[in-house]
Amino acid sequence: MALQDQPAYLIKMRAKPGLGDKLFALATEGMEKSGSSDRFIIAREDADPDVLWNMEVFRSHEAKDAYENSPLADELRDEIIELLAEPPMRIEVHPYSALPDGPA
After folding, report:
1. CA-CA distance, 26 to 33, in Å (whole number)?
2. Residue 45, Cβ neighbours under 10 Å: how many?
3. In this predicted model, what pLDDT tens digit does every residue of 56-92 receive, in sequence order?
């Protein structure tokens, strides 16, 4: 599957004051557990450390659907929503280009 054919999300979440570290830990743990992503980046805003940005690229449409309908997704969603100061912003996207992984 070409990179441009892989489904992806761009997500912005703002934690309640003082809960940013917990949000970042939970989001990272969820990404690692799901195994449905080809790659992901979780970034923290410099100007507001309670704001999380996540770019997640799924392995395939089937992997995305399987994750979204999994007990893990339901569990994480409930836990994350409790930490948020406002509703998350989620935009469905497809990667246009990416550099190949470099040496470790």
Report:
1. 10
2. 13
3. 898 889 988 988 888 888 888 889 999 999 999 999 9
Q: Which domain holds residue 19?
A: 3-93
Write the CATH number for 75: 3.30.70.100
- What whole-number distance in Å separates Cα of residue 18 and Cα of residue 70? 29
Query: Which residues share a beta bridge with 53?
Result: 12, 43
> CB burial class (10 A; 0-12, 13-18, 19+) of residue 95?
middle
> Measured between alpha carbons, how far is 98 from 96 in angstroms, rounded to an integer?
7
Q: Quote the number of domains for the chain.
A: 1
pLDDT in tens, 31-50: 888 878 888 899 999 999 99
pTM (two decimals): 0.83
Answer yes or no: is 53 within a domain: yes
